[in-house]
């Protein structure tokens, strides 16, 4: 039995850090595990300009303990008003690695997102030309579409036509949750990839809905049925470089989750790599973890692999019931229960 795992240091290709004084509560957990992370721009107000992204980057850097060396890779939030010149500015800044598409209203802080993708074709043209990846929250917002079908319908209605019109656009379908998404990515060209979260590898919708409603398991896209989870595990552990690690760690205060209308988002940065190791071990594929966590993402983004390593040991530890979050608290994934793998400090 494998009890120690040494991996090239991984990166997190989908992360929410929020802003303000809570940054010092949130950034260190990621920095201890990951060298770099793609920082999602869905703040209030959203990060829509290069200037805003560069200022946000400085606030993140200032929130990490000395010598951690964590590097935030910034993104811009697409709106109906984004102009192609902003894409050029972003590319030239040297610190912006992608642009994020939120269909308006699809998820947390997506109200400023895109209403008419058709009107953004000049911007998409610029992205394609400059080979700046488009990161996609792939769910339709059509209220007549069942929430469990919103990813599948988005692929058919929006993503397929988009890739038809922009065949060389680099696209990451973020936090995929369905067998259909897995099939779509596998069938696509080399410029199409997907991130997969630890919670979608470990949990199905029973965690959210069976035996009482469990708001800390509520995220978007919502957890799906077991067959979809199995398809995600198969994709993540397949060695296919189109699938890579993106935690979608998305902290919300306990009070914003435990309420009549709870926010979408699961916080997992405190144990992210350890939880992926559990999922890969359960699938009998620990030897595939390093590719998924440390090689495929840099390969897609055209960045070098990290030089140093991290070590996980099979020593169970108990996740705290809650964590500090500014003046509030945060309920971490697995709070109060055990995680099988431990990060060696
Ligand atoms: N995943 C989520 O449920 N929530 C994310 C937004 C997102 O990634 O869709 C958040 O910012 O809280
Ligand atoms: Zn999303
Ligand atoms: Zn996210």
UniProtKB/TrEMBL annotation:
Residues 12-306 form the Amidohydrolase-related domain. Homodimer. Belongs to the metallo-dependent hydrolases superfamily. DHOase family. Class II DHOase subfamily. It catalyses: (S)-dihydroorotate + H2O = N-carbamoyl-L-aspartate + H(+). GO terms for biological process: 'de novo' pyrimidine nucleobase biosynthetic process; 'de novo' UMP biosynthetic process. Substrate binds at residues 16-18, 42, 137, 220, 252, 264. It comes from the Bacteria. The keyword Zinc applies. Zn(2+) 1 binds at residues 14, 16, 100, 248. Pathway: Pyrimidine metabolism; UMP biosynthesis via de novo pathway; (S)-dihydroorotate from bicarbonate: step 3/3. The active site is at residue 248. Binds 2 Zn(2+) ions per subunit. One of its GO terms (molecular function) is zinc ion binding. The modification N6-carboxylysine is found at residue 100. Keywords: Hydrolase, Metal-binding, Pyrimidine biosynthesis, Zinc. Zn(2+) 2 binds at residues 100, 137, 175. This is Dihydroorotase. Catalyzes the reversible cyclization of carbamoyl aspartate to dihydroorotate. Its EC number is 3.5.2.3.
């Amino acid at each position: 039995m494998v009890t120690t795992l040494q991996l090239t240091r991984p990166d997190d290709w989908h992360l929410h850090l929020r802003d303000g004084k809570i940054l010092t509560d949130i950034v260190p957990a990621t920095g201890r595990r990951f060298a770099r992370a793609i920082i999602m721009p869905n703040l209030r107000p959203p990060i829509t300009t290069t200037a805003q992204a560069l200022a946000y980057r400085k606030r993140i850097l200032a929130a990490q303990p000395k010598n951690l060396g964590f590097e935030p890779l910034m993104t811009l939030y697409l709106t109906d008003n984004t102009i192609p010149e902003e894409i050029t500015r972003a590319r030239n800044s040297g610190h912006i690695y992608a642009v994020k598409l939120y269909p308006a209203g699809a998820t947390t802080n997506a109200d400023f997102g895109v209403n008419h993708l058709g009107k953004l074709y000049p911007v998409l043209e610029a992205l394609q030309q400059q080979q700046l990846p488009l990161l996609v929250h792939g769910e339709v917002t059509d209220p007549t579409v069942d929430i469990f079908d919103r990813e599948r319908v988005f692929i058919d209605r929006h993503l397929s036509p988009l890739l038809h019109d922009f065949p060389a656009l680099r696209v990451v379908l973020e936090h995929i949750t369905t067998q259909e998404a897995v099939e779509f990515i596998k069938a696509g060209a080399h410029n199409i990839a997907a991130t997969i979260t630890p919670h979608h590898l470990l949990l199905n919708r029973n965690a959210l809905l069976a035996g009482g409603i469990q708001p800390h398991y509520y995220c978007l896209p919502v957890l799906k049925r077991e067959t979809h989870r199995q398809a995600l595990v198969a994709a993540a552990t397949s060695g296919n470089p189109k699938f890579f690690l993106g935690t979608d760690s998305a902290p919300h205060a306990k009070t914003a989750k435990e309420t009549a209308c709870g926010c979408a988002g699961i916080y997992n940065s405190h144990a992210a790599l350890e939880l992926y190791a559990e999922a890969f071990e359960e699938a009998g594929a620990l030897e595939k973890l390093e590719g998924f966590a440390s090689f495929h993402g840099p390969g897609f983004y055209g960045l070098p692999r990290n030089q140093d390593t991290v070590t996980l040991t099979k020593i169970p530890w108990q996740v705290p019931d809650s964590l500090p979050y500014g003046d509030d608290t945060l309920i971490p994934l697995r709070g109060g229960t055990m995680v099988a793998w431990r990060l060696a400090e």
